[in-house]
Specification:
7-stranded mixed beta sheet; about 15% strand; alpha+beta; Butyryl-CoA Dehydrogenase, subunit A, domain 3; 2 domains; 7 strands; about 290 residues; Nuclear Transport Factor 2, Chain: A
């Protein structure tokens, strides 16, 4: 065991960075906090005597912890749905996680969640936190060149290779972001103003869920439905869906549904398709919007 005094003080100097790394690795604030705590326990047991680069040493320990969690998550995904355990109850304030998801980018978290564990670790630690490939190679038990390839493959997935957005992408992006802001803020009037009077919303049967898909027509009706989704909107962000502007909802970094939009020539929203069907979601190419 470490002596618990110097190590605690030293660890606190690195906690914020480690939490940031863990959140991007895991997409869940509660899991990230658990991973940081496990990193502290392992580091305290080992002690840092003789360690010159404490930040790199702690990041390596955290990387192993996160990699194990991601691999366990992948194994659960391969199990039949009926045999999977329920998701653990998240601790911490949902508002904190929503703010953090916004700062990182919900769409980025969705794309990262689709990467293989080794790809995710290589991309997050190298591209987002500048960890050299030589340092990542022992962690992933691969050569630096192989880790470089993992990061490159992940980078292509993050950037996406779909067609450029059609129409006026700037105006449409503003409309999508305004729709999200009005939904989060419960601003009914602003929502109605963004919608075409004859707007049509289609939601598949997995959204609510319901026995049959749902269709809503008219700006007032669609806006009232959006008001009921204010809580969901906290974990929703803009994204490209097969090259078109839309929204992704991903509580704890796991894709739950998407909203795809169609627009009139004046920029108002004429159609909204809400998709929660797992097979359709898996077939979508999702990419973060460029700043």
């Amino acid at each position: 065991m470490g002596d618990g005094t110097w190590s605690a003080e030293l660890f606190e100097e690195h906690r914020a960075r480690l939490r940031a790394v863990a959140y991007r690795m895991l997409g869940s604030l509660s899991e990230a906090d658990d991973a940081v705590q496990e990193t502290w326990l392992r580091a305290d047991r080992a002690g840092a005597d003789g360690v010159e680069n404490v930040a790199g040493w702690l990041t390596t320990i955290l990387g192993r912890v996160c990699l194990n969690l991601l691999r366990a998550r992948d194994r659960r995904r391969e199990d039949p749905l009926e045999s999977r355990p329920a998701d653990p109850v998240a601790h911490g304030a949902p508002e904190d996680e929503a703010v953090l998801a916004d700062s990182v980018g919900v769409a980025l978290l969705v794309v990262l969640d689709r990467l293989a564990p080794a790809e995710r670790l290589a991309f997050v630690l190298h591209d987002l936190f500048a960890v050299p490939f030589d340092d990542l190679a022992p962690l992933l038990e691969r050569s630096p060149a192989a880790v470089r390839q993992l990061a490159s493959r992940a980078r292509r997935r993050v950037k996406g290779d779909g067609p450029p957005p059609e129409g006026d992408p700037v105006r449409r992006r503003r409309a999508v972001e305004a729709f999200l802001a009005a939904t989060r803020g419960g601003d009914f009037g602003a929502l109605v103003g963004l919608l075409h009077p004859d707007v049509v919303l289609h939601a598949d049967r997995f959204v609510v869920p319901t026995p049959e898909p749902i269709t809503a027509r008219g700006a007032d009706t669609v806006a009232r439905g959006a008001m009921a989704a204010t809580g969901r909107a906290r974990f929703t962000g803009p994204a490209l869906l097969d090259g078109s502007l839309g929204l992704v909802m991903a509580p704890h970094g796991r894709l739950a549904l998407v909203l795809a939009f169609t627009f009139a020539a004046d920029g108002r929203i004429t159609g909204i398709e809400v998709v929660a069907d797992r097979e359709r979601l898996a077939a979508l190419e999702i990419a973060p919007l460029e700043d």
